[in-house]
Amino acid sequence: MSRTSVLLGLAVAGCGAAVGVGNGGVIARVQYTPRDSVSFVTSASLRRCGGGRGFILEGEVRGNGVLVWLRPGDSLPQGRYPVLQRGDTSTPRGAVVAVRFMTAELAHGVVLDSGSVTVTVSGDSGAGRRPVAADVVGGGLETVGARRVRVEAAFATPAPPPPRSGADTVRCEARP
Questions:
Q1: β-strands 169-170, 37-49: how paired?
Q2: What does the alpha-carbon distance between residue 24 and residue 3 come to, in Å, rounded to a whole number?
Q3: Could you tell me which of 159, 149, 2, 170 has the C-alpha nearest to residue 64?
Q4: Which end of the chain is more exposed for a tag (fewer CB within 10 A), N or C?
Q5: What does the alpha-carbon distance between residue 81 and residue 155 come to, in Å, rounded to a whole number?
C-alpha cells in the first residue's frame, strides 16, 4: 500500500466521507513554484460516460479541483494511462486531466500535457461495486501565470454501478 493511499484513507475518514456508499475522496497537491503549493482534500466521484466514452473522476472544494477523463473504453481496466492533450480524440486509451486551484482570490487552471494516471481496481466491496484508486502525476502550463505546474492527486472511490439505459452516465466529449 502506498503512502499516498494511506494518507487518502485517513483524510477521507477524517472528513467523514463514506467510501463504499457512493462517495469517495481525493487528496491533491499543486506545486506552482519551487516553494509554493496548494493542497486540498475533498470528496470525489467516479461516473461513467455515455456511449462507452470512458469515465469521469472529479473532486472540488472552495475553487480547488481535479477532473480526470479516463478513456479506456466501456470497462475500467486497471493500469497506467498516459496523459493526453485535451483535444486528442484519436488516441483510444489515455486520460485528460484538468486542475483548478486558488491563490488568495485568484483562480488558476492547468490542463496537464505530460504524466500519467495509474488506476487500481480492488476486490468487491459489496453490492458488486469494486473500490477504484487512481494516482495522477503530471505537469502542464498554467493559464494565468504561463508557468509550469506539477500536480499529484490520489483518488479513492467505489466503481460506478453498471449502466442502466444511459440514466447513470455523463456527457463526455472534446470541444474546441
A1: parallel
A2: 18
A3: 149
A4: C
A5: 15
For the chain, the structural domain boundaries read: 3-15+26-160
Residues ≥6 apart with Cβ < 8 Å to 57: 26, 44, 45, 46, 66, 67, 68, 70, 134, 155, 157
Measured between alpha carbons, how far is 16 from 11 in angstroms, rounded to an integer? 9
How far, in Å, CA of 27 to CA of 75, rounded? 25
Instruction: Write out the chain's pLDDT in tens, 176 residues.
Output: 344 443 333 333 333 333 333 369 999 999 988 899 999 999 999 988 877 788 999 999 999 999 999 988 667 788 999 999 877 878 888 999 999 999 888 999 999 999 999 999 887 655 556 789 999 999 999 988 889 999 999 999 988 766 665 556 677 766 65
